[in-house]
Each structure stands twice: as C-alpha cells, then as structure tokens.
User: Which sequence fits this backbone?
C-alpha cells in the first residue's frame, strides 16, 4: 500500500504469531542450504526450481510446494526443521550415536587410508563410502572400540588389507 512517497512494509518478512522458532522459513531454508555447503543455484537445481525462485523462497516472498521439499529431503535437508523451526532427533535402526572423539578418529582414519600412491586424497565419493563403512561398523561396538588403532584394524578387516 502506497502513501505518498512512502511504501509500507508488506509484512512478508515478519514472523507469524505463535511461530516455534523466531527465524522465518526462508532463514531456516538458507541455514540448511549453508549447512550442506550448497550455493543457491545448486540448491535450486536439487529442488527443481530456478535460482531466482530459490531466492524468493529464502526471502519469504513465496513458500515452496511439497514436491520441492521432498526433493530437498533426499539430500539431507531437515524438512521438519524448515516447517516447524525445531530440529527432530532421528530415532530407529538407522541412528548412530558416536562421541566427538570417535567421530574425529573416523575422520583421521579416512584421511589416513583414502589416499592414492602420491599421497593425494581419493575422490570425495570414495572417502564418503569409507566414512559410512566405519560409522556402520561402530553401530554395536563399545566406546573402547572407537580408538584410532581399533578403527584402523576394523578398516583393514573390512577392506581385506
């Protein structure tokens, strides 16, 4: 609505009353995009929209449809967080709880094992597979089995080296 030379704010950047999180949907969407390390263009491609549409979603001018959200869920976006503003802790057989030290040790082992003859890191896809393999192998093990030496032995056992 225009009044003289001033334009009143349409209110599309203001959070609705009763919102769980003070952040807007668009802010949470950008936060998830940043968390995954993707550009607006890359994120838009995953969601099947143009980069300008992605920008429109992130600035709360328009909201995406369910098909877009389902595509984002496929790359690890926490859709529940986008919609409700609160993170959901996954439960079930695919949940793995590891200590910070164990996670650090897994990264170290992947860095140690996943190099070529010249000492250069192998492609990300290969390193990611090794990382997943080690994480899954820890699922039913005690914290003592998460040391560097036990992880090295586990990876040797799994890879036959």
Assistant:
């Amino acid at each position: 609505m225009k009044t003289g030379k001033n334009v009143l704010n349409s209110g599309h950047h203001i959070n609705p009353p009763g919102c769980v999180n003070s952040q807007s949907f668009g802010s949470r969407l950008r936060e998830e995009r940043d968390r995954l390390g993707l550009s607006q263009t890359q994120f838009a491609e995953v969601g099947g929209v143009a980069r300008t549409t992605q920008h429109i979603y992130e600035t709360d001018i328009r909201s995406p449809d369910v098909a877009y959200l389902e595509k984002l869920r496929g790359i690890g976006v926490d859709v529940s967080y986008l919609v409700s503003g609160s993170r959901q802790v996954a439960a079930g057989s695919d949940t793995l709880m590891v200590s910070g030290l164990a996670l650090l040790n897994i990264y170290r082992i992947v860095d140690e094992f996943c190099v070529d003859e010249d000492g250069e890191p192998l492609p990300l896809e290969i390193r990611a597979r090794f990382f997943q393999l080690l994480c899954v192998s820890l699922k039913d093990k005690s914290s003592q089995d998460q040391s560097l030496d036990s992880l090295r032995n586990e990876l040797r056992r799994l890879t036959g080296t």
